[in-house]
Amino acid sequence: MPHIEKAETKRTKDGKPVPSYRVRWTEKARDEHGRPIPFNPGRPDGRAKEVNRQRTFRSKEAAQEYCDELNAQRHKVVAASPSELRKLGDQALGYFAHQYFEGLAGAVKPRYARETEAVYKRYIADAFATRAVASITAADIRRFRADLLSPRPKRSYRPDEPVEMVTLARTTIKPAYDVLRRILDVAVVDGAIPANPVHSVPLGRTTIDADTPEFEPRPLTAEQVGAVTDHIARVQGYPIYALAVTTSAYSGLRAGELAGLNVGDVGLPEVEGRNGFLRVTRTRRAVRGGFETGTPKSKRSRRAVPIDAWLADDLRRYLSEVHPFGNPDHADYDPNAPLFPGRYATGETMPDGLTQDAIRPERAAVVDPEVRRKNGAADRRNATYDPTVTCIRPAPSEGYKWSVPINPGNVADHYFEPALRAVGLPHSRWHDLRHTFAVMSLSAGEHYMQVSKWLGHASYVTTLNVYADYIAENEGGKQAPLTRPLAEPARQQPAPQASNVVPLFGRRLG
């Protein structure tokens, strides 16, 4: 039971000492998940450890009010069943968070479950993990919301750097707020609290969107894509990654979908000069220690994306002449091999005879078969890059790791972004290659619902919201001209005409 103690202080008023009042109470000791710690480790369901708490107030009335609040919280919730020894409302929020995370297993993707738990540990656990769930009020939620919206020191890994204050983005604030709401929903369903206090404190869009710039895609033109890929292939010396950039810009695949492509996912016609397709059935994402294979973003993301004939021909030559497992006529053909390879990382153990200095060519490979046959591999980097031909099979010293898929994030940082700067283009993200495909397709007259299907959007409404400005006239864009408003000229009354009718009444006799 909480109780009040009077404590002497050094404060005085009118020459008399002014006391303070402490509220002392005992509560269960809890672990990082908010679960009670057993007094005897051998009996986890037995008596729990207890810790002493106190809080000081300046007036006795405030202390009594807080004491009454603690007493009310202890008797606020009735146990779910008579056999329960602990009241659910006395359980900490971390207890229900643990239940919520356990319930995510099998219902969502493992990546989403991990990211959700990481959000909880970073933004919620310190404030609420050990708090009894019945003691969390709307005022606590308002303070939590204010803390999310307030500027905070930017994380830095160097102690000598000056402190920089930053504000969390909406993509960070909203997930943290939603995770807290869902955890408290579990407590409501279990009967620990009568209502979720988060519902009475809405986050609000205007609160966190006022200073956030509106999302704006930065698509590239066909000429800009050509300049960037030419630089990657000819100057940087990585024609395979130039082909990967071209494939992204002309198929609209997401980064994880491009990394998820295997050799067997490329559908090529039997003869050259005809369209092919890319089959999207999986995604890959770089994680610590390797890659994580998952499913596409939504049901509609499982799709077949058509590719133009020239790109299908480039991919055919790439698979038959470059990829060691891509030629179906060879015995080492492997349809499950990644379509685009990764590279050996700095410090990674490499095969014999391969060093970090040897895997960084400065010029592109010779692409003319005759030059390649006559001059051999030693003269590869002395010829001009031909964008109509993919590339030849790279030497082992070029360091491609064919058993590992491409990491679009690394390619964007080390090849794509430097190429943009080299050709004088502004910063673009790898995802803008997806926007490039959408804009070029819509501008060429493709129907927006067809483009939405190729992009794998869950609804064509998403396509309209993002790319409405690029829809062709005959597909719903601006096509009917409106005339200039002109004042209608004043109508003139017709002049009266002479009549041959002689009136019989009212005639004046002279």
UniProtKB/TrEMBL annotation:
InterPro entries assigned: DNA_brk_join_enz, Integrase-like_cat_sf, Integrase_catalytic, Integrase_recombinase_N, Integrase_SAM-like_N, Tyrosine_recombinase_XerCD
UniProt feature, compositional bias: Basic and acidic residues: 1-16, 24-35
Domain Tyr recombinase: 215-481
Keywords: DNA integration, DNA recombination, DNA-binding
Region of interest called Disordered, as start-end residue ranges on this chain: 1-51
Name of one Pfam family that matches: Phage_int_SAM_3
Record's keyword annotation contains DNA-binding: yes
Gene3D superfamilies documented for this protein: 1.10.150.130, Intergrase catalytic core
Family (UniProt): Belongs to the 'phage' integrase family.
Protein name: Site-specific integrase
Source organism of this protein record: Rhodococcus sovatensis
